């Protein structure tokens, strides 16, 4: 039987720079996707344990049942409510309407969604409890419709507001720092800015406390104590080295905190439980597969799948060369079956030292959707 865990990445005062294809140095995303996290994690496993152990590890991930599946990272935010700390975990909104959504007049009090559809579509991430209720529980309610209307009018005050539904961007701030690049040949200078993200934090008598940061889910196929210990050690090393760009400037440093789901939030154990056989699956990682029979079942034979695709590329640090591009399904994509996924070989043709992989191993959660 597999084991779920949740890992919080506490960045404290360390800013982060998470670049993605096409956004430029002046911008930074607030989170890291599963393929980037996997690559950085495995690279630090190699630094810690050597070439042969990491080759053996990658061989396991090339099997139909990989030893571990990870989600992309998402925002968590600690809030104080009546002197009690409450952690809000955000999940990507599925690319399907929740059950009872008034698209088509399902709610008696709301004939259509014109009064709040723009606000609904802007909610790219939902608090865990709202995500669970909308997509695994009772679904969308008339109260939710009214809350969205109030938000559209600039007067949010209902249960969605109280749950933190509209406060996603309160967890972090974007800022830019000036940089100067000096040409090694001509000594000419080039002035530019680099974008960073700073997660919310506070300093108290015991030191720095992270009030927000990133988290991801891990599903271990088997409870292999040695493998789990090695992976935890490699993640600790990654935290000391930093994740993302601008690490030479001290960006991306974090401390990892491993939690059982019940200790992170009582809702998590219900969220990962299987639903009825007719349930769909919502991606919480990137996903790639080249098995035509699987892709046929996911998207060709089922018109109710909803998905988005993104090109993934980037530089390979050891060789200063570009990996091959690969197109992946993104988080929030909805399919009728679990999308298994696999490692994509993105080794450039001119690179001969070893194989370079990008993880398209999928991790998903069961949901009920409106067809």
Show the helix and strand layout.
Blueprint: E1 3-10, H1 34-49, H2 51-61, E2 68-70, E3 74-81, E4 84-92, H3 117-122, E5 125-127, H4 128-136, H5 142-152, H6 159-162, E6 172-182, E7 189-199, E8 201-204, E9 207-210, E10 212-220, H7 225-241, E11 255-259, H8 261-264, H9 266-271, E12 280-283, H10 292-300, E13 309-312, E14 315-316, E15 321-322, E16 326-329, E17 334-335, E18 343-345, E19 357-359, E20 364-367
Helix pairs in contact: 1-2, 1-7
Element-level helix/strand string: EHHEEEHEHHHEEEEEHEHHEHEEEEEEEE
Q: Treating each run of at least 4 consecutive H or I residues as one helix, how many helices?
A: 10
- Overall shape: it is globular
> What Rg is obtained from the alpha carbons, in whole angstroms?
21 Å
Sheet with the most strands?
7 strands, antiparallel
């Amino acid at each position: 039987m597999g084991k779920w865990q949740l890992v919080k990445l506490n960045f404290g005062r360390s800013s982060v720079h998470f670049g993605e294809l096409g956004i430029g140095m002046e911008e930074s995303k607030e989170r890291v996707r599963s393929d980037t996290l996997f690559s950085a994690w495995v690279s630090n496993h190699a630094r810690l344990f050597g070439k042969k152990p990491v080759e053996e590890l990658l061989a396991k991930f090339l099997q139909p049942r990989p030893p571990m599946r990870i989600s992309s990272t998402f925002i968590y935010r600690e809030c104080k409510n009546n002197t009690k700390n409450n952690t809000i975990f955000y999940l990507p909104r599925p690319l399907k309407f929740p059950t009872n959504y008034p698209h088509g007049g399902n709610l008696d009090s709301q004939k259509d969604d014109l009064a709040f559809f723009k606000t609904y579509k802007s909610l790219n991430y939902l608090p865990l409890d709202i995500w669970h209720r909308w997509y695994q529980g009772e679904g969308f309610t008339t109260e939710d419709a009214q809350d969205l209307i109030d938000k559209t009018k600039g007067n949010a005050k209902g249960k969605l507001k109280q749950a933190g539904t509209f406060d996603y961007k309160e967890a972090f701030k974007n800022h830019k720092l000036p940089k100067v690049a000096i040409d090694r040949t001509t000594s000419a200078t080039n002035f530019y800015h680099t974008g960073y993200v700073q997660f919310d934090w506070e300093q108290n008598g015991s030191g720095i406390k992270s009030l927000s940061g990133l988290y991801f889910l891990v599903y271990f196929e088997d409870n292999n104590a040695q493998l789990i210990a090695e992976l935890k050690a490699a993640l600790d090393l990654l935290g000391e080295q930093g994740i993302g760009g601008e690490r030479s400037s001290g960006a991306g440093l974090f401390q990892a905190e491993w939690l059982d789901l019940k200790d992170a939030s009582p809702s998590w154990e219900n969220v990962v439980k299987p639903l009825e056989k007719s349930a769909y699956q919502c991606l919480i990682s990137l996903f790639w597969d080249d098995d035509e029979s699987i892709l046929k079942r996911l998207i060709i034979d089922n018109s109710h799948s909803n998905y988005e695709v993104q090109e993934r590329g980037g530089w390979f640090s050891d060789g200063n060369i570009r990996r091959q591009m690969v197109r992946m399904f993104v988080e929030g994509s909805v399919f009728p079956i679990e999308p298994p996924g696999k490692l994509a070989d993105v080794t450039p043709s001119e690179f001969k030292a070893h194989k370079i992989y990008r993880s398209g191993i999928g991790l998903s959660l069961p949901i009920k959707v409106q067809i």
